[in-house]
DNA sequence: CAGGAGATATAGAACGTTTCTATGGCCATC
DNA sequence: GATGGCCATAGAAACGTTCTATATCTCCTG
């Protein structure tokens, strides 16, 4: 006869309490059910597991041997169930996010702080990379979600659009004369331009914009981080193309000002990427909920 | 929803094989059954356990956590089942027997040898004691079976009668003149008698026999072991009252001879005692089978 | 690009097994 | 001798697993 693992649960409680009636209570069953389950277990092994006494039941030597194993097994299952509950309640687990450094710093960080405050048991892993790298991480299962600039077109990905970002050109005190002007693209190109290095979405966007107007934008300086973009502009090395939301502090304190143009720069959104058709972890679900 | 421990078995195999179809084969189920079980487990936890891919299934991070526990648990259960099979097949386990030293030496030993040869994995424990002690051991669960002289009357005990023993008086060369005689009880009492110490069944039996004929038997010497009983008789210190089966070697080689009497001494049987209403271990069952 | 192979998901019916109630027997205790 | 607690048994009912049949998706192949 095949053994039903449920019987082990019954056996465990019967042995632990020394009473079929008690076991029945613990398991919210009736005593005959427990009696029946034990009987089937005994028949399966062809060995008696309990001595029936007037006070309850005692393990036979064979029953004791079985109990030694089953007790451990049941304890592990109990631990597993507690652990799963902890995972679901976000008392443990982990959240792995991919994205660019600048998005992390300016956009994800406040949410992460909030998330961590609410769920201190969840470990956070941040993997920075370019948008294609983030998508690869996602497809390889190395991260739970990616935070990148829109637009992204990929049928495998589930995209949740979030915050809107507007890019703009900014300059420092050195070009103070531009403060009150509205420049044409043509006029802007007379100044030294600082752009983010090639493989970024912002760079592609602005290049395409100039092309669509028949111009070609060629940066004087290329840098690899948003921080340098800002720093170079402040020091007057040129006019930087940045995301306005990332320089809000500098704009407020006046160390940078926006160079207005006579064309509008297309806004873009931050998208949260997850794998379509792949279940999300509780932590990832909770984080997306928070961001939305 | 309450978790059915059978689902863990399904989960284990699904995770182990990385395929619901494979798990179904291993468990002799159909694929939809496995799919259903996993689904219920996931619903119980409120967490996805597997990523479904075109090639099969992969554990989610949460599923991996669960698997770490469940794998151990299932391995323990497998070990338990193997151990129980070994116990039943008498590849392991133990057999605890209580009885008197003399019965062990002359009666139980050959059977034990045979048993041990057949089931070398079964550990043997011998506890010697008087008949009342053996019965106490039995009732306390310290031994599986007792080997004692009949008769025993105890409603709690299950008694299997076995070999017949006949007691007799034996003497050594010193009393060679008795070899061809048939003595009356009266005549026997003229000789020095050697008896086993008080609290033995044999002693009680012979005392009662003499009393029933109106005599009183008073030993010259009392000893505490059958070996001494034999040794003293051989050295001519008196006539010993022994179990004939225990001195068969001495009778054959002629170092002792039986002193015949004109009354017949009542035979007694060896009884194998077990607890009534208590299941026997496989080893005990096998041993009793062997002895009968 | 169409089609096949193989994977999982879903729906609904059938089957089997657990679970229950009711009862009896046993033992210890009062 | 009565009472209460314990386990075993019997039979019925309800529940849940398991099945067959089918759908959907992906990957691989001709």
Secondary structure elements and pairings:
Two copies of one chain form a homodimer.
Chain A: H1 5-17, H2 20-26, H3 31-45, E1 50-52, E2 57-59, H4 61-88, E3 94-99, H5 101-118, E4 123-128, H6 131-139, E5 145-149, E6 157-165, E7 167-171, E8 182-183, H7 185-188, E9 193-196, H8 201-212, E10 221-223, H9 226-234, E11 239-243, H10 248-253, E12 257-261, E13 268-275, H11 282-291
Parallel strand pairs in A: 3-4, 3-5, 8-12, 9-10, 9-11
Antiparallel strand pairs in A: 1-2, 5-13, 6-13, 7-11, 7-12
The first copy, chain A, binds a DNA duplex (30 and 30 nucleotides) through residues 4, 6, 19-21, 29-37, 39, 52-57, 277.
Would you give an account of this structure?
The structure is a homodimer of 292-residue chains. The first copy, chain A, is an alpha/beta fold and 292 residues long. Chain A folds into 3 domains: 5-88, Winged helix-like DNA-binding domain superfamily/Winged helix DNA-binding domain (Arc Repressor Mutant, subunit A); 94-164 and 270-291, Periplasmic binding protein-like II (D-Maltodextrin-Binding Protein, domain 2, 3-Layer(aba) Sandwich); 167-266, D-Maltodextrin-Binding Protein, domain 2, CATH 3.40.190. Helix content of chain A is 45%, strand content 22%. The first copy, chain A, has helices at 5-17, 20-26, 31-45, 61-88, 101-118, 131-139, 185-188, 201-212, 226-234, 248-253, 282-291; strands at residues 50-52, 57-59, 94-99, 123-128, 145-149, 157-165, 167-171, 182-183, 193-196, 221-223, 239-243, 257-261, 268-275. The first copy, chain A, has a 6-stranded mixed β-sheet, with helices on both faces. In chain A, strand 1 (50-52) and strand 2 (57-59) form a beta hairpin. In chain A, helix 1 crosses helix 2 (20-26). The longest helix of chain A is centred in the first third of the chain and has 28 residues, at 61-88. The interface between A and B is large, with 42 and 43 residues. The structure holds a DNA duplex (30 and 30 nucleotides).
